[in-house]
Every structure is written in C-alpha cells, then in structure tokens.
Write a structure and sequence with these properties.
The chain is of the alpha/beta class. The chain has helices at 15-22, 29-49, 53-68, 76-83, 86-94, 213-220, and strands at 125-126, 141-149, 160-165, 185-189, 195-201, 206-207, 226-227, 230-236, 243-249, 268-269, 271-276, 279-285, 288-289. Helix content is 23%, strand content 21%. The strands form 3 sheets. The chain has a 6-stranded mixed sheet with strand order 1-4-3-8-9-10, with no helix packed on it. Strands 2, 5, 11, 12 and 13 form a 5-stranded mixed sheet that branches. It binds fe (ii) ion (FE2). Fe (ii) ion is lined by residues 116, 118, 166, 230, 232.
C-alpha cells in the first residue's frame, strides 16, 4: 500500500501542527485553548533552547520528584510553582489591585499574594483578642488589628479573617514537633464595625524547604531560600471574592529578594514596637478591602 498520501512529520517544526490538530476537537473550549497554547509554548521552548534527551529526562525526573516529595507536611509542587514566580503571577493577574474603570479613584482593593504551601483548612475558631500563640510558644508579643471593607469602603461585619504564620524560629507548626497542632493559626470574625483583633508572637522569616528537589534547584541557581517574615491572611465573606494575601514585616532584609516573589509595596506592614508595662510589644494595623465576587476557597495544600 502506498503511504505517499499520509502526512508524517519530517522536521522538528512540523510536529506542532499535527499535535494541535489532534487536540482540536476537544469539546471544552477553554481546555482546548489552554492545551493548544501550552503545547505551542512548549514546542517553541524546546526548539529555541535545543533541549537534549538528557535534559528532557532530567525535567521528567524533577516533575516525578516534586510529586513524590509532596505529602501531609509539605507540598513541593506548589513550592516549585512559587519558586518560578508562577504562583505570584496567577495571584496578581487574577486579583488586580485597581479596577480599570472611571471609579478607580474611589475604590481601594487589597493586593493579593500567593497562598503558599502551608495553609490548612479548619483552623480553630477564635474570639476577638484571643492569642494564637499556644502552648509554650516564646516570642515578642504582637497585636494585630484592622478593618475589613468592601470595595466602596463600607466595613464588613461577620467577615472571616483566617491567619497563619511561622513561629519566631521560622517554622510552621506542621514542620515542628515542639509546637502543638494548629499553633499560630486561627480564624476570627469581624465585629459589627468590620474590625478584627488578635494576639500572637512576631514571626520570623524562614527558608522555604530545601531538603527536596526544589532545594536542589535553588542551590543550582545560587539562590537563597529565605522569605521575609510575614503573616498569611485569607479574608472571606459571602458575596465577595476570597482575599488571599500576606503582610510582610518592614525592615526585613529579604523584602526585595523573596524567593517566591510575593512582596508588593502595599503588603509591607508597619510594625510598631512599644514598651507596655515594662515589656516590649509589637503592634500591626492592617486593613483589607474585598471585591465583589464568589466566595470560593482554594484546595488546602496540606491537610
Ligand atoms: Fe509563609
């Protein structure tokens, strides 16, 4: 049988149209668009950089390794996306801090930041003023307060402020046997004026996990792993898009070299330190501004 009428690839460049054609009947239009674009970029990348077979094997091994390194205590896949700036890109793209309309001057919208690999669902429900530094957690006492607003500046009562952060030695409770379960995590409802208030200890900066494949990548790139100190927040109330963000400590040495690219200027909090009854104490005031939308929560990176 003659095969002269069959189109088969003869050059590296002739593969892409065949792949796009093979995927062209995907009924889901968005999946079709995403896969066609991703495949186009991947082919262009491989051609541009002339990827070798050894390099392809290495890339496949990295993807296998980050999956296998992911478990109940760490999520190496999210960390890989974080280190490539992809998590921050998706967060910033999907949460524009200012609307492009004529009301832009009147509307304040909080900057979002990446979720990170350490959010756990179902943190303890707390009362205003509760301390989330439980057990024998030592550190500089920190009080945090603020108001949750809608995009028009109207306070939002009964909004949920979910906070989580690393300890003063730079470890999340799930990474540290010395901390009790759910330490430095809590959920606070705003009061009738939209205000929230909680106590904790001032967190330290910390290195992202470096004992897995992502650590190998950082070392190969001569990059340091140290995140500037921060508090994570997830602020939610029905009828509004869930705000996922981080508030960083002013003065931290790593603000401009965050390995996961989460820092934007409005997210640098002003920590004030005072002496109260002979004891040094830090205070942070930070407000949140939500936009209208659907209250959809992310999938927890760790259980
Ligand atoms: Fe963090």
């Amino acid at each position: 049988m003659s095969t002269s009428h069959i189109t088969l690839p003869t050059t590296p460049e002739s593969l892409l149209p065949l792949v796009i054609q093979a995927m062209s009947r995907t009924p889901d239009a968005r999946l079709r668009e995403l896969m066609a674009s991703l495949t186009t970029h991947l082919h262009a990348f491989i051609l541009e950089t002339q990827v070798t077979e050894e390099e392809f094997e290495c890339a496949v091994k990295f993807i296998i390794d980050i999956g296998q390194a992911t478990g109940p205590k760490t999520n190496e896949v999210i960390l890989a996306a974080d280190l490539l700036g992809v998590s921050s890109l998706v967060a910033v793209l999907n949460n524009p801090a200012h609307h492009n309309n004529q009301h832009a001057q009147e509307e304040a919208v909080s900057h979002a930041a990446l979720l990170g690999p350490f959010w756990r669902a179902n943190a303890p429900i707390c009362q205003a003023g509760d301390n989330i530094a439980r057990g024998n957690t030592q550190g500089l006492p920190l009080e945090v307060c603020g108001v949750v607003y809608d995009k028009h500046g109207k306070p939002l009562p009964d909004a949920m402020v979910d906070v989580w952060h690393a300890s003063p030695v730079g470890l999340y409770e799930n990474q540290d046997d010395a901390q009790e379960n759910m330490n430095l995590r809590g959920r606070f409802k705003t009061d009738a004026q939209g205000a929230y208030f909680f106590k904790t200890v001032r967190p330290a900066g910390y290195p992202v996990p470096t004992n897995g494949p992502c650590g190998d990548l950082l070392r190969a790139q001569l990059r340091h792993p140290n995140r500037p100190a921060h508090l994570h927040f997830m602020v939610s109330t029905p009828g509004h898009k869930v705000l996922i963000t981080q508030v960083f400590a002013d003065g931290d040495d790593n603000l401009t070299s965050d390995p996961v690219f989460g820092v934007t200027a409005p997210l640098v909090g002003q920590y004030e330190e005072r002496m109260i009854n002979g004891q040094r104490q830090a205070h942070l005031t930070h407000d949140f501004h939500l936009v209208d939308g659907e209250m959809t929560f992310p999938h927890p990176p760790i259980p």
